[in-house]
């Protein structure tokens, strides 16, 4: 995998340079470390996670690949544990799905069936040569120039935290509600994502006491990234502000306006969040927003693994994603269900 994909051989350098740069090495050795776990009560997986908690354990950005593996035999059970650490600078959720699918193909003797790897430099070129900075500035100034106060639901303002103390709640939407949401989206000619964004905007308005609200939306980043972007590795996603005016306008009109705002935002999906914030009336260092909505289509880990699969006998123990924003709603679309 490391030899196939340039992003897995990428490091970051900045010392002595006028601006940071990505450097792709011709060769990079994947590090696999074996550690010994304490023979005590409790889960070996939990101990492994604690030892390599990203809040304390740092990946050296100057040494590729920014991908590490740690293995350990779990005391008392005899099973082996594998912990994968991937720095967000070189990958997103789709990156993990593609990488795991390719690993499965190699283990299954189907490496020859893999398509040619898509170089990450294609996205760099797209971002640099596509919509220029002046067009980005004009768009975000139109959207945000009159926003002079941050949107801080429940008074949450710390956007530079490390995720410690965070709590997660998960809920699968009832099928009947899921079906009704999809029916309404079809009736209005909008996406389900637009309905979710408007609903989250209502939460922002009620919890912040503001009618004009701004929150971050996580953009897929692959819609306009060229052919083959759906199977490329690398950090494509981007977080940008979406502004909604919840001023008593009817629900249907608000849904259509939200849909139009999101459609317009897609043309700027590779713009800088720092640029967008500068176009608002919120003075630095105050944040423009402190909440996110992450709407994404998801494939459950180890989906499709059967008894004859090369990964049979392996058990998925879980994963952890963290953001510095204090409030996040993730809407995961799983086939015909929403979580």
Automatic annotation (TrEMBL):
Give one Pfam family, short name only: Condensation
An example of a Gene Ontology BP annotation on this entry? secondary metabolite biosynthetic process
Q: Per the record, what is one GO cellular component?
A: cytoplasm
Give the molecular function GO annotations.
catalytic activity; phosphopantetheine binding
> Which InterPro entries is this protein grouped with?
CAT-like_dom_sf, Condensation_dom
Entry superkingdom:
Bacteria
Q: Which residues form the Condensation domain?
A: 2-331
**Could you tell me which PANTHER family the record lists for this protein?**
FATTY ACID SYNTHASE, NONRIBOSOMAL PEPTIDE SYNTHETASE
This chain's protein is named Condensation domain-containing protein
């Amino acid at each position: 995998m490391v030899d196939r994909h340039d992003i897995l051989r990428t490091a970051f350098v900045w010392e002595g340079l006028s601006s940071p740069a990505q450097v792709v090495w011709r060769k990079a050795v994947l590090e696999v470390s074996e550690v010994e776990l304490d023979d005590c009560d409790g889960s070996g997986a939990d101990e492994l996670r604690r030892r390599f908690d990203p809040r304390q354990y740092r990946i050296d950005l100057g040494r590729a690949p920014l991908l590490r593996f740690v293995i350990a035999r779990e005391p008392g059970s005899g099973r082996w544990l594998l912990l994968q650490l991937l720095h967000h600078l070189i990958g997103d959720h789709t990156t993990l799905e593609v990488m795991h699918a390719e690993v499965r193909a190699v283990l299954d003797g189907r490496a020859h069936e893999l398509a040619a790897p898509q170089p990450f430099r294609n996205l760099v070129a797209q971002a640099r040569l596509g919509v220029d900075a002046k067009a980005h500035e004009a768009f975000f100034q139109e959207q945000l120039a009159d926003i002079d106060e941050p949107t801080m639901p429940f008074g949450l303002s710390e956007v530079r935290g490390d995720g410690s103390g965070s709590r997660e709640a998960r809920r699968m939407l009832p099928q009947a509600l899921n079906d009704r949401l999809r029916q309404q989206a079809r009736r209005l000619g909008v996406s389900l994502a637009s309905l979710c964004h408007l609903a989250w905007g209502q939460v922002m308005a009620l919890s912040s006491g503001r009618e004009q609200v701004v929150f971050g939306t996580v953009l897929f980043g692959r819609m306009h990234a060229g052919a083959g972007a759906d199977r490329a590795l690398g950090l494509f996603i981007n977080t940008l502000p979406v502004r909604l005016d919840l001023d008593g306008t009817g629900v249907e009109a608000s849904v259509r306006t939200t849909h139009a705002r999101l459609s317009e935002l897609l043309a700027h999906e590779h713009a800088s969040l720092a640029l967008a914030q500068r176009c608002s009336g919120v003075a630095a260092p105050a944040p423009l927003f402190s909440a996110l909505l992450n709407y994404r289509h998801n494939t459950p880990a180890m989906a499709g693994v059967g008894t004859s699969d090369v990964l049979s006998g392996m058990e998925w123990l879980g994963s952890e994603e963290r953001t510095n924003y204090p409030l996040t709603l993730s809407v995961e679309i799983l086939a015909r269900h929403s979580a």
